[in-house]
């Protein structure tokens, strides 16, 4: 089964970036509807789920086709080239331009996604090896991934209960969001190849509005005090568990419809504007911290300025740094596919 493109994922990635920027501006200002604005940090969870889906799927494809899994060193090189240049530039700009630079993005980048990227090759082999991909083995692995999604809420409650909130930035607190995407990758390939039969999930793919409505309702619930404070204040263990759990289910409802999208979903989330904006999404998220460090003002002013400023920096970075690197990655993947067709990975 060949590598497939999921055009609607581009639009979801853009939504995630916008949500993150709005939530961060809200943290720096007195935002209206503070509860709703603060919970837009669910964008981080969306990014994690998308990464889990795209990066684990090649392992599933290799398992089902009885070929070698993606090579570890090329995969790690491509991840580093995709993430580190913009991040390092943002750090440099912060040190030079911002009077009191925040290290929030550094902590997030180092303590959450990067450990997952390092862990994925081994985890991918563990979850796709040792036996043939039968319906039984697929279902067993889906159960393992469901268990991992529960780890995140439990971990967040535990670190709050023990008085170590900084440990909430460690990978276990976010692994469940990656596992959501990984589980959907396994389901999507299993369903496409006939390892799993028809189920209620197939019906849900045809009603994306219903799933997105459920996600919105869950986020509105999270916007109440039941999910904790609207700033960086320490929540209670129960609040931390509820917030993480609500985000996990909401992200699953957001991501699932874009895996087998309807024509309308592709038009909205997979069109040319979405594709172009998706290329700048990571840069915008990273560079927003530079812009926020230079601005002081009300939410209504700071939000549009931050969006425009982050987008401009992201566009410049993409043009001068990220696109040339992306071309090198694509060339490397082409060379790899010539020598070993099964070793390419979706980035």
UniProtKB/TrEMBL annotation:
Keywords: Membrane, Transmembrane, Transmembrane helix
GO cellular component term of the entry, any: membrane
GO biological process terms, semicolon-separated: lipopolysaccharide biosynthetic process
Transmembrane segments: 12-30, 42-59, 80-99, 105-128, 140-161, 167-189, 210-230, 245-264, 276-295, 301-321
The organism's place on the tree of life at top rank: Bacteria
InterPro entries: Acyltransferase_3
PANTHER family linked to this entry: ACETYLTRANSFERASE (PTHR23028), ACYL_TRANSF_3 DOMAIN-CONTAINING PROTEIN (PTHR23028:SF53)
The protein's name in its UniProt record: Peptidoglycan/LPS O-acetylase OafA/YrhL
């Amino acid at each position: 089964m060949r590598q497939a493109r999921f055009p609607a994922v581009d639009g979801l990635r853009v939504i995630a970036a916008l949500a993150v920027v709005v939530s961060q501006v809200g943290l720096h200002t007195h935002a209206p509807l503070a509860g709703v604005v603060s919970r837009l940090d669910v964008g981080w969870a969306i990014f994690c789920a998308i990464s889990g889906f795209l990066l684990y799927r090649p392992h599933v494809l290799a398992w089902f086709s009885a070929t070698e899994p993606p090579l570890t060193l090329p995969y790690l090189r491509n991840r580093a080239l995709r993430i580190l240049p913009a991040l390092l530039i943002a750090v440099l700009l912060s040190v030079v331009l911002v009077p009191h630079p925040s290290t929030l993005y550094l902590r997030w980048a180092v303590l959450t996604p990067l450990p997952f990227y390092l862990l994925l090759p081994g985890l991918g082999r563990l979850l796709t090896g040792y036996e043939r991909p039968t319906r039984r083995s697929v279902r067993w692995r889906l159960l393992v991934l469901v268990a991992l999604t529960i780890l995140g809420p439990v971990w967040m409650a535990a670190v709050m209960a023990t008085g170590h909130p900084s440990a909430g930035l460690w990978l276990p607190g976010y692994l469940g969001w990656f596992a959501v995407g990984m589980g959907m990758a396994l389901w999507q390939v299993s369903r496409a190849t006939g390892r799993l039969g028809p189920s209620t999930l197939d019906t849900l793919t045809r009603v994306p509005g219903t799933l997105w409505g459920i996600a919105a309702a869950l986020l509105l619930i999270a916007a109440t005090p039941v999910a904790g404070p609207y700033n960086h204040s320490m929540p209670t263990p129960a609040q931390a568990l509820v917030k993480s759990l609500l985000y996990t289910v909401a992200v699953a409802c957001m991501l699932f419809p874009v895996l087998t999208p309807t024509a309308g979903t592709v038009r909205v989330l997979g069109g040319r504007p979405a594709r172009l904006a998706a290329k700048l999404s990571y840069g915008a998220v990273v560079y927003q911290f530079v812009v926020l460090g230079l601005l002081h003002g009300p939410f209504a002013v700071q939000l549009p300025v931050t969006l425009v400023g982050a987008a401009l920096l992201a566009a410049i970075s993409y043009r001068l740094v990220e696109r040339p690197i992306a071309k090198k990655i694509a060339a490397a993947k082409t060379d790899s596919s010539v020598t070993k067709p099964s070793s390419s990975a979706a980035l």
